Amino acid sequence: MDLPVMPPVKPMLAKSAARIPAGMRYEAKWDGFRAIVFRDGAEIEIGSRTGKPLTRYFPELVEAFRANLPPRCVVDGEIVIIRDGRLEFEALLERIHPADSRVRMLAGTTPASFVAFDLLALGDRSLMDAPLTERRAALTEALRDAADPVFTAPVTDDVEVARQWFSQYEGAGLDGVVAKRPELGYRPDERVMAKVKHERTADCVVAGLRHHKSGPVVGSLLLGLYDSTGRLQHVGVCAAFPMKRRQELMTELEPLRMESVEGHPWADWAREEAHATSRMPGAPSRWTGTKDLSWVPLRPERVLEVAYDHMQGDRFRHTAQFRRWRPDRDPASCTYAQLEEVVSYDLREILGSS
């Protein structure tokens, strides 16, 4: 491979903003694997956000890139899986598997798509220093004849349209909106874009904790919600505390600490088969490997209000954020029913795919 921009390249990043800024160029925020694709003739390499290759996990996209990308180019975008008009991040996680046979089976049953939104090189020319407006125009022209599963992300300069996308596209599983400065060159690994994500709150039962890697202070709080059968389901974690607060939380929660998991709603967490019918902490997976999945059980008596962006199935898609204790709430009232139901929106309306 001999391109004007060679792998690995870390992608340009975004920092969070409270609202959509004016005077920018806007795109939807895709919920998938960020990827930079390098093509030099028949050679294809798919680089991850960390620079490590993803190529072996998406053989169907390798063929799609040969069919749809210019012969020599470097393209920034997002790998996604679309099911029933929505993005499915869970299905994407399944693709990172050590067995090639498993990867190829999933490539046939749940094929991935690629949404391109930036062009770093074309032919013998690097576009890294070119402004976004020029890169975007070149991308649109380069992918003019591309077909499913390779798409070009919709873009707008109208902040009102961006605000409409922010509320409307969530129903298709998108994260929010990204704003980019039109005059800016490509800045690898720098947070020079803005991202505006959805935030909601939910009252959850705190049913356990994990220690921080530094020692016996709170690393994360394990959150639960009751389903329609009255079973407490593990929905995610709340983390990212200053060290002083981690120590304070350990003291606050000490009275709720249980000597063992006996009698706890998640008492069967260590039995792999139990995870088939209930969502509990410590589910074994290829992501955890030899990681210590143990946790400290707490009597499920305290309610915590957390902020979250959106749900992925029956759990929080990302780490929730601590907002406040809710001593006025009965833990039994912390159910899925309180969660806002997002209006469905078909992803095909965004990408123009049948």
From TrEMBL:
<comment type="similarity">
    <text>Belongs to the ATP-dependent DNA ligase family.</text>
</comment>
<protein>
    <recommendedName>
        <fullName>DNA ligase (ATP)</fullName>
        <ecNumber>6.5.1.1</ecNumber>
    </recommendedName>
</protein>
<dbReference type="InterPro" id="IPR012310">
    <property type="entry name" value="DNA_ligase_ATP-dep_cent"/>
</dbReference>
<dbReference type="GO" id="GO:0003910">
    <property type="term" value="F:DNA ligase (ATP) activity"/>
</dbReference>
<keyword id="KW-0436">Ligase</keyword>
<dbReference type="InterPro" id="IPR012340">
    <property type="entry name" value="NA-bd_OB-fold"/>
</dbReference>
<dbReference type="Pfam" id="PF01068">
    <property type="entry name" value="DNA_ligase_A_M"/>
</dbReference>
<dbReference type="InterPro" id="IPR016059">
    <property type="entry name" value="DNA_ligase_ATP-dep_CS"/>
</dbReference>
<dbReference type="InterPro" id="IPR044119">
    <property type="entry name" value="Adenylation_LigC-like"/>
</dbReference>
<dbReference type="InterPro" id="IPR012309">
    <property type="entry name" value="DNA_ligase_ATP-dep_C"/>
</dbReference>
<dbReference type="Pfam" id="PF04679">
    <property type="entry name" value="DNA_ligase_A_C"/>
</dbReference>
<dbReference type="InterPro" id="IPR050191">
    <property type="entry name" value="ATP-dep_DNA_ligase"/>
</dbReference>
<dbReference type="InterPro" id="IPR044117">
    <property type="entry name" value="OBF_LigC-like"/>
</dbReference>
<feature type="domain" description="ATP-dependent DNA ligase family profile">
    <location>
        <begin position="114"/>
        <end position="231"/>
    </location>
</feature>
